[in-house]
Design a protein that fits this description.
By secondary structure, the protein is α/β, with parallel strands linked by helices. The chain has twelve helices and eight strands.
Length: about 300
C-alpha cells in the first residue's frame, strides 16, 4: 500500500514510489501561481525533510519568495516547536500499556523488523500510542538516510521570513494541528502505524523516491497516491487531507483576496486530486496555473512592517 502520513513538528509529506511522469528537475516543483482580485500569489507544496545536497532550493521557489510580501504556513511553526507544546504532545502520546500489548502481533513483528533495519530502538515506541510510534519511525527512517527537518522547504522559508521581517500567518491553530493525532481513536492509531510500517518495508518506498518525486515536480504521482489512500483508508484520508483542506479555505481566501502577494506553503499532498487545494480554489473561481515555465520575477521591496504572528 502506498499512502501519505504527516509528521507533526513539522508535518512530513512522504512521497512513495510511482512511475515518474516528469522529465528531469523542475525549476519550480509543486509551485502554483494564483491570480487573486488584487495581486498574484503563490501556492507551494512543501517537502518537510530534505538532505544536505538539496539545501539549495530551485530557482522558481526562490523567485516566488522574493516576490511575496507575506508567508502563510499550515500552522504556527514557532509555537509547535515550543517546550510547552512539545510537552503536551508527549503527554498525549503516553499509553496505558506497552505498545506490544496494544497492537496486533503481526503488525508488531513488522514494526520490530523495520525499526531494526534503521537502527531505531524499540524503547522509542513501547511507552507510546501507535500513532506516535508511526511518526517516530517515519522521522527516524528519513534521518537515518540523511534527511533533516531544518532543510525542509517550510523551515527554510520560515527562517528567512523571520530574518527578512516578512509577516507570517497560518491556516490552523497549533492545538488543532496536534489534535490530528492526539485525538485519534485506538483503531485509527493502529491503522496509521500499519500504513507507515507497510509502506516503509515495501521495495521502492525510500527517501530517495521522495527526493526524486520532489525534484521532478511530479504532481501526477501525488494525485495517484491520494486516490490510493482514499480508497484504502477513507477515514484517515478525510482526517489528514480532505477535511483540513476544506477547513483552510476561509483563511486561504482571505489571504488571496488581499493586495499583498502571499506565498502559501503547505504539505505537497494537500495540493492535488479532487479534494486538493488547487481543485477547491478553482471551484471558488480563482485562476491557478503551474509555475513550471521560465520567467523573470522581480524582487519585492523590503516589507515595512515587522514580523507579526497571528
Amino acid at each position: 500500500m502506498k499512502t501519505f502520513r504527516s509528521w507533526l513538528l513539522p508535518l512530513l509529506c512522504t512521497l512513495s514510489a510511482v512511475p515518474a511522469l516528469a522529465e528531469g528537475p523542475s525549476r519550480a516543483p509543486f509551485l502554483w501561481e494564483v491570480d487573486g482580485p488584487k495581486a498574484k500569489h503563490y501556492l507551494l507544496g512543501s517537502v518537510h525533510l530534505l538532505p544536505a545536497d538539496a539545501e539549495q532550493l530551485p530557482d522558481g521557489l526562490e523567485q516566488a519568495y522574493l516576490r511575496s510580501a507575506e508567508l502563510v504556513f499550515e500552522s504556527d511553526i514557532a509555537a509547535l516547536s515550543s517546550p510547552d507544546l512539545q510537552s503536551k504532545l508527549l503527554a498525549a502520546a503516553k499509553a496505558d500499556k506497552p505498545l506490544k500489548a496494544s497492537v496486533a502481533p503481526a503488525l508488531y513483528e513488522r514494526l520490530v523488523r523495520r525499526a531494526g533495519s534503521v537502527g531505531m530502538p524499540m524503547a522509542m515506541c513501547e511507552p507510546f500510542r501507535a500513532w506516535f510510534c508511526a511518526l517516530s519511525l517515519e522521522l527516524f527512517s528519513y534521518q537515518h538516510a540523511g534527511f533533516r527537518a531544518e532543510l525542509g522547504i517550510d523551515q527554510q522559508f520560515y527562517k528567512r521570513a523571520v530574518t527578512d521581517e516578512k509577516p507570517v500567518h497560518w491556516l490552523e491553530e497549533p492545538q488543532a494541528h496536534l489534535a490530528l493525532f492526539t485525538d485519534t481513536s485506538a483503531a485509527q492509531s493502529e491503522q496509521i502505524l500499519a500504513a507507515t510500517v507497510d509502506e516503509l518495508i515495501e521495495a521502492g518506498s525510500e527517501p530517495a523516491d521522495l527526493l526524486r518525486t520532489w525534484r521532478e515536480g511530479n504532481g501526477a504521482a501525488l494525485e495517484e497516491l491520494g486516490a490510493q489512500l482514499k480508497a484504502r483508508t477513507p477515514a484517515i484520508y478525510e482526517r489528514l487531507l480532505a477535511g483540513r483542506n476544506r477547513a483552510w479555505l476561509q483563511r486561504l481566501q482571505g489571504a488571496l483576496d488581499g493586495d499583498k502577494p502571499q506565498l502559501i506553503i503547505v504539505g505537497a499532498a494537500h495540493l492535488y486530486g479532487p479534494d486538493g487545494l488547487v481543485a477547491l480554489l478553482r471551484q471558488k473561481g480563482y485562476r491557478i496555473q503551474a509555475a513550471d515555465r521560465p520567467a523573470e520575477i522581480p524582487e519585492a521591496p523590503p516589507p515595512q512592517a515587522r514580523l507579526k504572528l497571528r
